[in-house]
Automatic annotation (TrEMBL):
Protein name as annotated: Fe2OG dioxygenase domain-containing protein
GO molecular function: L-ascorbic acid binding; metal ion binding; oxidoreductase activity
Gene3D superfamilies in the record: B-lactam Antibiotic, Isopenicillin N Synthase, Chain
Keyword Oxidoreductase: yes
Listed Pfam families: 2OG-FeII_Oxy (PF03171), DIOX_N (PF14226)
Residue ranges occupied by any Fe2OG dioxygenase domain in the UniProt entry: 205-305
This protein's UniProt keywords: Iron, Metal-binding, Oxidoreductase, Vitamin C
Family under the similarity heading: Belongs to the iron/ascorbate-dependent oxidoreductase family.
InterPro entries: DIOX_N (IPR026992), IPNS-like_FE2OG_OXY (IPR044861), IPNS-like_sf (IPR027443), Oxoglu/Fe-dep_dioxygenase_dom (IPR005123), Plant_2OG-oxidoreductases (IPR050295)
Organism of this sequence: Populus trichocarpa
Amino acid sequence: MEPATLGKSLLVPCVQELAKESPATVPTRYLRLDQDPPIINNNEVASLPQIPVIDMRRLVSEEQMDLELDKMDRACKEWGFFQLINHGVDDSLVNKVKEGIQELFNLPMEEKSKYWQRPEEMEGFGQAFVVSEEQKLDWGDIFYMITLPKHARKPHLFPMLPQPLRDTLEAYSAELKNLAMKILYLMAKALRMKPDEIKDMFEEGSQMMRMNYYPPCPQPELVMGLNSHSDAIGLTILLQVSEVEGLQIRKSGKWIPVQPLPNAFVINIGDMLEIVTNGIYRSTEHRATVNSEKERISVATFYSLNLDGELGPAPSLVTPETPAAYRRMIVADFLKGFLSRKLVGKSYVDVMRIQNGGDKDN
């Protein structure tokens, strides 16, 4: 299918360029007074729980697998998020990705304009989920593109990226598909799903990358780097390019800052995986805040079911005691619906619910 049909976003100004002008105040369109304030005092931060840390080496070790798998299972049920250490992706590749993405955002505007979003599309430089001229904007820029399957790549984006970034992202894309599949198979094992169900749904899945650039802001408490949302896809693997705090997740009504661990990925459950697991694992609202002193850069790699496939609870998780809680839908239609709306909390997964049974706060 033609990837351009998945979503579109209105063209908006480049926040990085705006920030270079060192404005004393934030333009009105970026003021987000509707949001919970992002600032928590330091004493409170110190007392907040941190998302679980899972060790991939233990997950693949015969002696330690059961304990670590149980820990990951609980993290997915209780948090929807965990940090993954010893993930097996080569450090030198990860460092090349970090350097390349930093250079991409540092390109002069005349170079960046080659990769800018086109009308009626969402891929490229810009912002996502902008559906009206009156809508409030994020204090951040993105570079977004479909990376797998290869035939879905836009010819003016991935294939035209400067070298060596193109080769680096090619290798990174393949490594992260492998890692996503390993994690999904381990989750299936924890849930006692049939492994073939994961294989059939995800093996030929699609992958998207969203690179995020959050420049320093003169009034960080009045803006949002990325609005509160849950991810639509199956699994997100987030690499913090700059180890600057900014990601927050919603847990028991509080916004908890995630303190990035060196050489770790932040993994989270998306709406599709909540549906596949029949609500056993739940996607969690999260957002990005900004600060007044440092830029923050991250890259989220999203892994989704096959676009032509069907999304719905895995048959092995549907029983008379646990009937299907979500209806079935073609994956591409689900994504189209998600990408054509404003980003608002977990509201989109509600369209799939058969019964509004357990929409408790994460």
